[in-house]
Amino acid sequence: MADQNGKILYIFDLDGTLADTAPDLMATLDYVMIREGFAATPMQDARSLLGAGARALIQRALRQQGAEVGVEREDAMFRLFLAHYESRIADASRLYPGVEAALDQLERAGGFFAVCTNKIERPAKLLLEKLGVAQRFAFICGQDTFGVAKPDPTPLLRTIAAAGGDPARAIMVGDSKTDIATAKAAGVPVIAVDFGYTDRPVQEFSPDRVISHFSELSAAADRLLG
């Protein structure tokens, strides 16, 4: 993509940052676990289980129940998860309040946008399309896009490049230790939302700024950029 002439690129995580996807993710997890003979997972455990992708979600749920499965069975559960999830990807998932207004405000100020998520690329794009905002993002990176996942900084740096941005003019927005660690490893400032999927307060991971609503994003970015 062409260079964006010094504009600020905002790179967003997806699950727990742009959208509350826990209801559909946890419902799909329950579908897979029950079908495989395991117990359902309490919804209140979502914050500690989500955020690292579907395979990690399955692994964490199994570990929580003290269960072990072989690689072959885990692969089958992963494929079942993806197929079922895509069929109900936006049944209950919604953008967080203020997302579209914040994008409008940042765009008017010269910002542009990308997504860097540990969700697989295909469902990430499908979800953003279903939520009506896919066209807002210059590039959408999933866990499999570059063959490496966050917290490795590679997907973030390559997302910035693919979107036509500059790491020196970029801000990461995420909800977890993983997002914060990724941004720090890439040398990119990071704003954390405090309403996402983390079992510990995001302040503990020392992001550059913390916001509690998307209406605060523009001001936080301005302070961060000096």
Automatic annotation (TrEMBL):
Give GO cellular component annotations, separated by semicolons.
cytosol
What is an annotated GO biological process for this record, any one? carbohydrate metabolic process
Is Chloroplast there in the keyword field? no
Binding-site residues, Mg(2+):
13, 15, 175
Q: Which Gene3D superfamilies match?
A: HAD superfamily/HAD-like, Putative phosphatase, domain 2
Q: In which pathway does it act?
A: Organic acid metabolism; glycolate biosynthesis; glycolate from 2-phosphoglycolate: step 1/1
Q: Which Pfam families match?
A: HAD_2
Active-site feature positions: 13 (nucleophile)
Looking at its record, which EC class is this enzyme? hydrolase
Q: Which UniProt keywords apply?
A: Carbohydrate metabolism, Hydrolase, Magnesium, Metal-binding
Please give the Gene Ontology molecular function terms for this protein.
metal ion binding; phosphoglycolate phosphatase activity
Question: Which cofactor is recorded for it?
Answer: Mg(2+)
UniProt key word Metal-binding: yes
Q: What is its EC number?
A: 3.1.3.18
Question: Catalysed reaction per UniProt?
Answer: 2-phosphoglycolate + H2O = glycolate + phosphate
PANTHER family referenced in this protein's UniProt entry, alphabetically? PHOSPHOGLYCOLATE PHOSPHATASE (PTHR43434:SF1)
Query: What's this protein's function?
Result: Specifically catalyzes the dephosphorylation of 2-phosphoglycolate. Is involved in the dissimilation of the intracellular 2-phosphoglycolate formed during the DNA repair of 3'-phosphoglycolate ends, a major class of DNA lesions induced by oxidative stress.
What family does this chain come from, according to its entry? Belongs to the HAD-like hydrolase superfamily. CbbY/CbbZ/Gph/YieH family.
Its recorded name reads Phosphoglycolate phosphatase
Provide the taxonomic classification: Bacteria, Pseudomonadati, Pseudomonadota, Alphaproteobacteria, Hyphomicrobiales
